[in-house]
Write a structure and sequence with these properties.
Length: about 160
């Protein structure tokens, strides 16, 4: 039997986490290839909609990487990211979705090793958790409630 391989979408700040990922590559720190990276200018550019869309589209986890507190190149973007992620996690918890599939980590441009270790740890934890449920829940909702709603619309238009 093949081991479950989680898909991770990573939103990385251009100035720190993205460069940390680059350094991990040039330093030959190995990490699992489960990541698809989206570069943001700052972690403060993260919108909870991006994270939800990634989870709904089948990501098993989302990693948001930014500069350490105090090092944001746009002064306080990482604090904004921290608040948004906290709100998102509260919402996920309230609707019964595993909030620990969303990670926010501070990784500096000089921390290639930390980047590779973070990815390896996230992949290991997601393998243990198994596939994310949001995509299947969303499909199920569309097939059931979504159909009922479209049926209601069809009836009301007659
Ligand atoms: S520039 Fe990196 S978190 Fe803002």
């Amino acid at each position: 039997m093949t081991e479950f391989e989680p898909k991770i979408v990573a939103f990385l700040c251009n100035w720190c986490a993205y460069r940390g990922a680059d350094l991990a590559g040039t330093s030959r720190f190995h990490y699992p290839p489960n990541l698809r990276v989206i570069r943001l200018m700052c972690s403060g550019s993260i919108d909870v909609v991006y994270v939800l869309k990634a989870l709904l589209d089948g990501a098993d986890g989302v990693l948001i990487g930014g500069c350490h507190p105090g090092n944001c190149h746009y002064q306080n973007g990482n604090y904004k990211a921290m608040r948004r992620v906290q709100v998102l996690k509260n919402v996920l918890r309230q609707v019964g979705i595993d909030e620990d599939r969303v990670w926010l980590r501070w990784i500096d441009a000089s921390e290639g090793k930390l980047f590779s270790e973070t990815v390896a740890q996230m992949v290991a934890e997601l393998r243990a958790k198994g596939p994310g449920s949001m995509r299947t829940s969303w499909q199920l909702w569309q097939e059931t409630a979504g159909c009922q709603l479209s049926g209601t619309e069809a009836r009301s238009s007659k």
